Amino acid sequence: MSVRMKIDVVSDVSCPWCVIGLKSLEAALAKLGKEIEADLHLQPFELNPQMACGGESIAEHLGRKYGSSPEQLEEGQERIRARGEQLGFRFDMGKRSRIYNTFDAHRLLHWADTQGKQRALKHALFAAYFTEGRDPSDHEVLVEVAARAGLDAERARQILASGEYANEVRSRERFYTDRGIQAVPAIIINDRHLIQGGQPVEVFEQALRRVAADTPTG
Questions:
Q1: What's the pLDDT tens digit per position in 61-76?
Q2: Which of 109, 159, 179, 193 lies at a C-alpha separation of 20 to 30 Å from 186?
Q3: In the chain, pLDDT over 90 holds for what percent of residues?
């Protein structure tokens, strides 16, 4: 009998380790097959909520925020690229030089959840930013990516032109930060078990098995 699990993935569109975390979680769930019936939802988190329009150079941003040298940045990017390749995702570091505000992307993701296409949009946004080097704060890019994910382009345009889902997104962001989430990805199972970071597939698989063993099926 399958074990039902509620899984919330708190993450940001501009976070490379969030790509790795989601892909690893999905791979672990695929390996577990029918053992687990996952009710998975993507929750908003903004790494840079004050990011200005037009974004900022990644090298300058990380240098100021973490004190990263160009050499450290290059080493980190290679680790990310290699992990992505293992999971079937292509990080094209040559195309991505800036980091952007992601609030509007989170508004579309909130809407996409009501349409049953949230994960499709999340993956499309990851590809647009990390593989194609596109700006996830640009409304025309967001409309195109929404259509690519199977969503109605005109409805996406309406949402972006308005303030729809802004309050809902901010409420969810506060919910998780108020509960101590300061770094992403953060994967929360059944509102109790926290897995942080872009862990390997095996770590997610083992954690899911442990939670499943302790979860009543009746």
A1: 888 877 878 888 889 9
A2: 159
A3: 83
Collapsed DSSP state (helix, strand, coil) of residue 151:
coil
Integer Cα distance of 73 and 6 in angstroms: 35
Taking the chain, what is the end-to-end CA distance rounded to the nearest angstrom? 10
Residues 6+ apart with CB under 8 A from 46: 12, 101, 102, 103, 106, 173
Question: pLDDT tens, 2-32?
Answer: 899 999 999 999 999 999 999 999 999 999 9
Residue 68: phi and psi, rounded to 5, are -75, 130
**CA separation for the pair 87, 159 (Å, rounded):** 32
Rounded Cα distance, 79 and 125, in Å? 21
What is the crossing angle of helices 103-114 and 118-126, to 10°? 150
Which domains does the chain carry?
3-213 (3.40.30.10)
Three-state DSSP class for 164? coil
What distance in Å separates the CA atoms of residue 38 and residue 55, rounded to the nearest whole number?
A: 35
Alpha-carbon span 185 to 183, nearest angstrom: 7
The distance between the two most distant Cα atoms of the chain, rounded to a whole number of Å, is: 54
Coil vs helix vs strand at 158: helix
